[in-house]
């Protein structure tokens, strides 16, 4: 079950898609040729062979948290809706490419910077794990940078795709003990509920040890 919370924008888009589908259905029943029923009308843009439009949620880092280090500020900014056009096999990499582009808005930033490059991202045979492969060149940073990099990638992929439950990280196409020398990447990462210590559970990105 996907844990993502639908934003007002997401609900508005869903409402427009429902209305378009209802109008198309009505037109078919009437035997009319209704131009608005085409996929290109519902999702503007010409799709290439095998391409689809995917609605995703991008999680960016809170620059204020990076500057202040105040845990009460929150590590990540509210998710941003985006449309990714890609083939099913390429959509995870294309989503991370979009995550490397910082949107307009105060305090939005990303750990996917020019020196930190994702070389590939694909769904494993188990159908639940996405393996994200980094180029080894330029892959360096402090513990905060490394943890935020992992957090925003795991949040984005698991909240955007129902089938994705965890993310595994590799470097140069091979398993790696760590990305930048601080986190254990010998195991995949996912979202787990943990006790906040204040009487409620919170969802956190965690290593998934067996």
Percentage of residues in strands: 15-25%
What would the principal axes of the Cα set say about the shape? globular
Tally of strands? 10
Binned, the helix content reads 25-40%
Helix/strand structural class: alpha+beta
Instruction: Write down the secondary-structure element order.
Output: HHEEHEHEEEHEEEE
> How large, in whole angstroms, is the Cα Rg?
19 Å
The overall pLDDT, averaged over residues, is: 82
Distance between the termini: 21 Å
How many strands, which pairing sense, and closed or not: the largest β-sheet? Answer: 6 strands, mixed
Low-confidence stretches: 1-45
Number of helices: 5
Describe this structure in words.
It is a single chain. The protein has helices at residues 8-30, 39-42, 63-68, 91-99, 143-160, and strands at residues 52-58, 61-62, 80-86, 108-109, 118-123, 129-134, 166-171, 174-175, 189-195, 201-207. The protein is α+β, with helices and mostly antiparallel strands and 210 residues long. Strands 5, 6, 7, 8, 9 and 10 form a six-stranded mixed β-sheet that branches. The longest helix is centred in the first third of the chain and has 23 residues, at 8-30. The radius of gyration is 19 Å and the shape is globular. The relative contact order is 0.12.
Summarize the structure.
This protein is an alpha+beta fold.
Write the layout of secondary structure elements.
Blueprint: H1 8-30, H2 39-42, E1 52-58, E2 61-62, H3 63-68, E3 80-86, H4 91-99, E4 108-109, E5 118-123, E6 129-134, H5 143-160, E7 166-171, E8 174-175, E9 189-195, E10 201-207
Parallel strand pairs: 6-7
Antiparallel strand pairs: 1-3, 2-4, 5-6, 7-8, 7-9, 9-10
